[in-house]
Known about the structure:
Layout: H1 2-13, H2 41-52, H3 56-66, H4 74-85, H5 88-98, H6 105-114, H7 121-137, H8 144-157, H9 164-186, H10 197-211, H11 220-232, E1 234-240, E2 245-249, H12 259-275, H13 280-289, H14 302-308, E3 324-325, E4 333-336, E5 345-349, E6 352-357, E7 360-363, E8 373-375, E9 378-382, E10 388-391, E11 398-402, E12 409-414, E13 420-423, E14 430-432, E15 440-446
Amino acid sequence: MVVALWCAAMAAAQTxxxxxxxxxxxxxxxxxxxPRLLLRPARLRLLRRERERTSMRxxxxxxxxxxxxxxxxxxxAQALYYQVAEDADAGRAAIAWALxxxxxxxxxxxxxxxxxxxxxxxxxxxxxxxxxxxMTQTASDESVPAxxxxxxxxxxxxxxxxxxxxxxxxxxxxxxWEGRVAPALMAGREIVPRDEAYDLYELLHVIRDNTNLxxxxxxxxxxxxxxxxxxxxxxxxxxxxxxxxxxxxxxPRIGEPDLRLAALSRAADMAMVSFDTxxxxxxxxxxxxxxxxxxxxxxxxxxxxxxWANPYQPxxxxxxxxxxxxxxxxxxxxxxxxxxDSATWFGLFxxxxxxxxxxxxxxxxxARAPGPVxxxxxxxxxxxxxxxxxxxxxPGGAVFLVGLNPGRTYxxxxxxxEMYEADSDRAGILAVEVPAGRExxxxxxxxxxxx
Length: 451
C-alpha cells in the first residue's frame, strides 16, 4: 500500500509549475508578533512540554546550559534557553553577546526576536542599528546562507524600522528567489549545495510562518523530490562521533567528515519533516531520523536537536523509500544496494562520481573498464568509452547510463526490443528500461553519428 501511494504521489509531482512562476506579486508583509523566527506558537508549546516532561533532548540541552558549557553559537543557545526555560539571565546573556563585536547577523536576529521583551530601549536601538548595517554590508552576497540571514533580520525588524526590512524581503522573494533560484532549481541546476540545505529550510520556514508565502510553489517538482534526494545522498556506513553517531552526507571532496556539516544535515532533515509533516517522503525521512543513537549531544548540535526534533511525529520505515533516485530534470543520481549500513552506494553529483563500498568512498573514473556497477536492483553503466553492455536487473530495478554527452539524443537498442530514442540530461545521465530477470544486451549510439 505504501509503495502504491508513493508511486501515485510521484506521478502527480511530475507536472510542475512553469519555471519562474511568481509566488505572489503582492508586497511581502509581516504581521506576526514576536517570537517570529522558528518559534511560532505550536513549536514553542511543544518545546516547553519537552521541558516539563524532561525528555532526553531537553535533558541534554539543559545539562549543557546549566553547566555553562561554552556554546559555539551562544546567541542561538542562550536565546532558545530563555524562551523555553523562561530564564531571564540566559536572555540577558544572549543580548550581551549579540551586542558584542563577534556577533553574526543571523544570531543577532534570533536574539532580537526571541529576547524582545528583555531589550531596553537603548539596547533595541543599538541592536537594530547593527543589524541594518550588516544587512546593507552583505547585500551583494546572494549565497543561500547570506540571504537567509538577511531575511531573518528583515522579519525580526519588520515593524521596528520603516523601509530596510520591507526592501530586503521584496528583493529576497521576488528578485533573488523567483527571479534566479527557483528557475535554476526547475532547470535541474545544482544551485543549492547539499551543505546549505539547513540554511535553505530556515529561510523557507521563516517566510512561510510570517508572510504565508510558500516559496516551494515556484519549484514544486524540486521540493517534492528533495527529501528523498537528501536521504539517498548519505553514505551508508555510520560514523561514530564522540557524542553520538552520524550518517555523513556525500561531498565532492573526499576527506575526514566535517561533524558540523553532519549536524546541520541532520537538522535540515528535521526541518524538512517539520515543514510538511503529512507528505509521504517526510514520513519516510522521519523514520530515518528517530533512532536514539543519532540524537545529537555536542555543544554545537544539541540546540538544533532540541529545536527541531519531534519524536511524536509518526514516521514510516525508510525501507519503503526507493534505492535509486534520478528524477525528471535532475542532474544527480544516487543509488544503493540496500538500506543496510553495509550497502554499496553510488553517487553522481556536482560534476563528480563516487562509489562507497567496504566502508570507504572513492572517486569513480568514468573511463574505467565498462562493466556495470551493480547496486542491488540497480545497474549503473559507465558509458564514456563503451557503448555496449550486458546487464541483468531484478523486477523493479533500473539501468542508468552515465558519462554521456549532456543534452544529446541517443539511439537505444535492447535485445528483442524495438530501438528507440532518448535524451541524456544536463549531467549526461540516461535512464533505460530493460526486461527484468534475465541478462540482456544493451547498445547505444548518439543520434546522427555513424556506427
